[in-house]
Amino acid sequence: MKYLEKIQALLPLGYIYLIILGLLKETILFYPLGVNILKYSSITDILISPISDMISNPILILIVLSVALLFFLFQTLLIRYSHKNWVQKLLKNYRMNPELDKRELRKALIPPFVMLAGFELLALFVGLGIGQGQKIKKRMDSQTLKQNYILTTGSGEGTPIYLIDINSIYYFYVKKDEKQVKIAPIGSINTLEVINKK
To answer: Pairing state of beta strands 149-153 and 170-175?
Structure first.
């Protein structure tokens, strides 16, 4: 029961960490595009950002779960083979007592496991932000962005655009043959139609 209470106490800290990672990713993504995303984000966008990033990309979920599973399997192997020389050397290198019984060893391995999972998420979010931002910037500069939507404004005119992102207040997009990011309030857009890519 105490273990469950500790997990419940750490959940808000974990969510705050995810929010920070989401902010970091969005800031890094929009920085090369010349947009300070924090000026255009509401509290709701900030709170939902990490969860929407995780859920909208199934590959991202698979990567996070597979790495967490690998960490768990590695921890299980260390506990199972704690009597082996290679495990004892590894634990001594990390200043852990290899003579602990299996239950105590499991508790001692939780903080490094949490640190590794946190570092994995940090690397993933920062890497995604850097990769996506640089990719969009390079394609904008070379005019090779492929339009993925047709945006219709109040005038009824449809314009092919590359949609970078949407939050609860603004659309962020690049028009065909342009090199600047446009930011439009959601109320100014009538329709957004997906371009069929066959």
So the answer is: unpaired
Q: Which two tokens stand for residue 78?
A: 């260390």
What is the architecture, at CATH level 2, of domain 149-194? Roll (2.30)
Where along the chain do its domains lie?
Answer: 2-141, 149-194
Q: pTM to 2 decimals? A: 0.76
Q: What is the pLDDT of residue 97?
A: 60
CB 193 within 8 A of CB 149: yes
Query: Among candidates 71, 63, 76, 173, which has minimal Cα distance to 117?
Result: 71
Structure tokens belonging to residue 170: 């603004």
Looking at residue 97, the DSSP 8-state letter turns out to be: -
198 pLDDT above the threshold of 50: no
State percent of the chain over pLDDT 90: 17
According to DSSP, the β-strands at 158-166 and 170-175 are: antiparallel
Using pLDDT thresholds of 50, 70 and 90, give the confidence band for residue 98: low
